[in-house]
Amino acid sequence: MSDFILSKFNYWASILLMMIGMYGMIAKKNLIKKIIGMNIFQVSVFLFYISMGKVKGGTAPIFWEKAVIYDNPIPHVLILTAIVVSISTTAVALSIIIRIYNCFRTVEENKILETLANDENQSGNNQ
Amino acid sequence: MIVYIILIPLVTAIIIPLFGFINKKLPFYVTLLSAFTNFILVIRTAKKIFSYGTERYFFGGFEAPFGIEYVVDGLNSIILIIISFMFFIITVYSKRSLEKEIENRRLPLFYALYTLFYTGILGIVITGDIFNLYVFIEIASLSSYTLIAMGQKRNALMASYNYLILGTIGATFILIGIGYLFMATGSLNMADIKLRIVPLYHSKMVRTAFAFLTLGLMLKLALFPLHVWLPNAYSYAPSAMGALLAATGTKVSAYALIRILYSVFTIEFDMKIIPFNQIFLLISLVAILAGSTLALAQTNLKKMLAYSSIGQIGYITLGISLSNATSLQGSVLHIFNHSLMKGGLFLIAGGIFYKLNIENIYDMKGISKRMPYSMAFFVILTLSMIGMPFTVGFLSKWYLILGAIEVGRYFVIPIIVISSLLSLIYLWRLVEISFNSDVDKKEISEMPVSMMVPVIIISLLTVFLGVFSDIPISLSREAVKIILGS
Amino acid sequence: MIIEFITRKMIPFIQLYALYVVAHGDLGPGGGFQGGVIFGTSIILYIIVFGMEKGKRLLPLKITDFLGSLGVLIYAGVGILCIVFGGEYLEYTKLPFKNPHLAAHLGIFAIETGVAITVSAVMVVFIFDIARKKDV
Q1: Is B168 on the interface with A (CB under 8 A)?
Q2: Interface pTM (ipTM) of the complex?
Q3: Which of A31, A41, A48 is opposite residue B179, by nearest beta carbon?
Q4: Cα–Cα distance, B3 to B69 (Å, whole number)
Q5: Which residues pair with A30 in a beta bridge?
Q6: How far is the alpha carbon of B250 from chain A, nearest alpha carbon, in Å?
Q7: Contact at 8 Å (CB) between B256 and B137?
Q8: B2-12 b/e with 16+ CB inside 10 Å = b?
Q9: Which partners does chain A have (≥3 C-beta pairs < 8 Å)?
Q10: Which residues 14-43 of chain C have a CB within 8 Å of chain A?
């Protein structure tokens, strides 16, 4: 049993972070907290990738004269690209939140949905 | 060389803001030029594929399993043709339509993001490397989040935010699936993974990879339980963008699903090791019925068309799940047809909004007196959506029914028929309201010519390709040969 | 007073470190994206400490937009240059330098510079956008 938990420790950490991130995205009503949850969710995937790239007894994949065996460098390269994608998504999400704030004056999701429902009712009454 | 298909829109997207500093009207002409050039390039590449066979292109000179490669074969070329054609047509439409919806000083940014979205979807279709697929999915998705948020009403912002959260979950699931595949095989090239993964079919790693990949792609595809982002995103976006998203956004995700299911994992895995096909069949049938039923309840024209799209996506996945040659041909044909028809319907809806500023169906009483030509083409596209013979919509439904009969799943046939009848009800409802003759005679105020010409071309194409049907049928047969033969 | 003094002294070192990170992207940790972020952070520090007006005078919005496009153009341009010299897209070994090894190093360095320029420009545009007072 301890072998099951301890030898696969990196996967447990990754799954724990993923679940925390998903909980934040789904259950929180504040729009910015959802973005934070999304970031935690994506970070868990990066942890998963890099922990998969470790070779037993390997050193960091940087050129070094005294090295015998290196880690696999491909996951590091993939994660660089994925980090850039994650930052771009966060940047776009924050820009949209700023425009939502300027339009609705609040960043709580239930208040925004109330305002939109009132809009619908009013335009329905006007017709 | 096929790299120019991606390079031309990419460089155009970068230099459009520079042109925008000179003159605010110039970006439209630059976009139009690059869309036309790309369309011609795609047609020439497709002709070369059909004579010579699959074409590959290696980035940076690195050979197949080590570098990134771009592959254009029979399946790619039909999707490339329809995407570049729809992009070109919608760009012609967008000149007048955007004047009303977006302020003048934001136009260069709109066209830059628009062309970047085009680069993203072309990249999804062309690439042969699985991580490159993820990068292009994210390029296309990020551009579409921003473009949807440029819509006029306040709802567009919340619609874009919801689409962002759900789309990122989907893309991250795809990333996890790619990670598991890399862990299993050590390679990122689609053809290479297919060879290396065969002895590992029964391991949990490969099964988990399959689960995450298909789940992420189903979210991008808006298949029934995961469709929640689609109606708001399509209806509150600017009209040209809504049409482009409806015509191309989900279709490239369907293409990616076909690639993963048949060119990375083989049919043997899909059917025997995981009973994926049975589950997918049931989900598709529920999607078909739910989409058509939910569309009946809508009074906003664009939302009705969006829910109708959810139903039509069920047809595409129905063909994928039945997995024999005839139904796969029906599925590829339906990707082609639905892109054409739904794009045309969204263009007409945008035109009605542009000229008369109404979106609710019940406000459109007697509209055929004022926009007779638009409603005439709406009738033609409705006949194609329900599958009337001599239109192109008939071909895909025919092949799907034939494929279902061949496999012996007879219960599919009444569901296809019922959903065609439901499509008839909700589309003909608008035709009947608009041809209502209680209204007094008003003068004709039609859409501007540059918006009308795309609608005319699309409607005439649906009839033309329905009558001279060997063009779509032979293209899709080539595609199915690649799917099943490789 | 103290903050302004220290910031004025620190910013050149931060920018030098950013260039160092970009240039060593080949053989060590670092590269275009990381160096661009550090460079952008130095300019954001300037804007935070000295105010938006001085920041806008230092880098007007039009120039930052132009720089953002310029970086990606450098990237695509190097790739197309490789096609002009008779190779595939981004095949650096065909560039006309003394040996293919040097050509690969210089090609990668040019690309990383392009990425760094774009990323720093985007970060500056982003903070201009967030810190605006009303919806324009």
Answers
A1: yes
A2: 0.93
A3: A48
A4: 10
A5: A108
A6: 20
A7: yes
A8: bbbbbbbbbbb
A9: B, C
A10: 27-29, 31, 33
Tokens standing for residue A91: 């940047």
Q: Are C121 and C71 in contact (CB under 8 A)?
A: yes
Residues counted in chain A? 127
Helix residue ranges per DSSP H, A57-104: 74-104
| Amino acid making up residue B255 | Y
Amino acid identity for residue B14 in this structure: I
What is the bridge-based pairing of β-strands B55-58 and B69-72? Answer: antiparallel
d(CA B6, CA C69): 17
CB-nearest partner of C135 from A84, A95, A102? A102
Q: What are phi and psi of A108, to 5 degrees?
A: -95, 135
Q: Measuring CA to CA, which residue among B81, B80, B114 is closest to residue B95? A: B114
**CA distance linking residue B331 with residue B327, whole number of Å:** 6
Q: Give per-residue pLDDT as tens, A48-77.
A: 999 888 888 888 888 788 888 888 888 988
Asked if B276 and B214 count as a contact pair (C-beta separation under 8 A), the reply is yes
pTM for this structure? Answer: 0.94
Count of other CB atoms within 10 angstroms of residue B20:
22
Who among B138, B164, B188 is closest to A93 (CB)?
Answer: B164
CA–CA min distance A63, chain B (Å): 20
Integer Cα distance of B316 and B323 in angstroms: 11
Q: What is the pLDDT along chain C (136 residues), one digit of tens a residue?
A: 898 999 999 999 999 999 999 988 877 788 889 999 999 999 999 998 988 888 888 888 888 888 988 999 999 888 888 888 877 787 777 777 788 888 888 888 899 999 999 999 999 988 888 877 665 4
- Chain A residues with beta carbon closer than 8 angstroms to that of C134: 102
